[in-house]
C-alpha cells in the first residue's frame, strides 16, 4: 500500500501511468544482454524505487536504445502503437519500456543497428570490409588489446568463402547471432 501512495504522490494517479498488457512482451523478445541493460537504465532513473519513470527519462532510454535517428514525431508515432493514450501519460513502468524497445528491435531495429555497426568498418560505403578495416576499427573501439589471431577468427566467422572481403549480409549474420 505504501508503494502505491508513493507512486501517486510522485507521478499522479495511476491513470497517468503507462501500463501495458504484459502478455504482449513475449511477442517482441529481446536478447538477454539488452534486457539487462534496459533494467539497469530503468533502475538508474527510478531512484525512489517506485516502479515508474518520467516520460522525459523514458525518452532518454529510447535515445540510447536505437531511437536516436528518429524524429520526435516518429518516436511519438511509435509510442502510440504501444498505447493509443501514451502521450497523455506522465510515467511508464519497466514492462512498457521493454515492449516499446522490443517492438522496435524486432520490427527492424536490430537490422538498423547491424547496418550502423557495419558502417563503422565500411567508411567508404563500398558494401564490403577487409581485414585492415576490421583491425583498425577493433583496435580503436575496443577497451582491450586485439591481436592478429582475434582478427583472423573474426574474418573466418564473417567470410565463409575466404575471399578477404566481408559483405554486409555475412557481417549481419554474425552480428545478430
Automatic annotation (TrEMBL):
Any GO MF annotation of the entry: calcium ion binding
Stretches assigned to the EF-hand domain: 33-68, 109-144
UniProt keyword rRNA processing, yes or no: no
Keywords: Calcium, Repeat
PROSITE patterns linked: EF_HAND_1, EF_HAND_2
Domain of life the protein comes from: Eukaryota
One Pfam family cited in the UniProt record for this chain: EF-hand_6
PANTHER family: CALCIUM BINDING PROTEIN
UniProt-recorded name of the protein: Ef hand family protein
Species of the source: Stylonychia lemnae (Ciliate)
Gene: Contig8466.g9037
